[in-house]
What does this fold into?
Amino acid sequence: MIEFRWNKIDKKSNTPVIKDVELDELAEMLLKDYKSALLREPRKIKYEHFLESYLGANLEYQHIYYGEDEGQIFGVTAFNEERLKIFDQENLCTRHLTLEKNSVVLDHYVTEEGREGLELFTGLHEGGHLWLHPMVYSEPVEQLSLFSSDTEPIKPVTCCRRSDIESFGRTWKGYRTPEEWREHQADYFASAIAMPKATFVPLVLETLKANGITEGYVIEDAGLKERFFAKEKLTKVIVDAYGVSKSAAYVKLRKFGFIRDTKSLEEENSQFRLF
It folds into this structure.
């Protein structure tokens, strides 16, 4: 495995200061080292193998406990040996599970039938934390503190909730705290690993061309035909090729500018007119 090293770091939180385009480049560097065939043609990555065999994660699945007034937790990454509160369905009670260092735990919810894309993305999201953020969360063994009354501002674990997954399409203005930036980085990492730029861009351009779209993008609110193509047909091509969810495919297409709307296009054109 290629170790993550980055010079631009926020000194207060140890959070990497990294652009999306740089995450694309880093993801392709990892994929080239892990399995270069993933960069030659669109295909679904086996996230379990990538996490365990390449990133060195201890992967397991549990019913992760979350409070009544908290969001559902889809995944957890523990950077040290840690204790995680889970729900024991067999005995109908909660208990604490000891996790090994570098453990990734996915909630059984994401593994249910029909959620294969969400499972893939959540696994890769947690892998993003494991690779990108050990300098943020790793602590001395004696400071284990998950879900305790410890006053440490950053605990040696990430708990990623529903709102953290597949949200990488937000603009930079939507992130205000180091934690929000780290969640974005993990989410964008998942997108870049699942749908690497090297195969994603040619696949989309080929699909657009095959459907008579020569501008390089579709304006989804131009009419019913365009909306159907953007929301259904083009998105399905990505879902079928990479095994991601429809939501993740659509966000990626928007992020890369292959799906646009009239308002954003007009704003973009007005900026060009200023020069």
Notes: The longest strand covers residues 82-88.
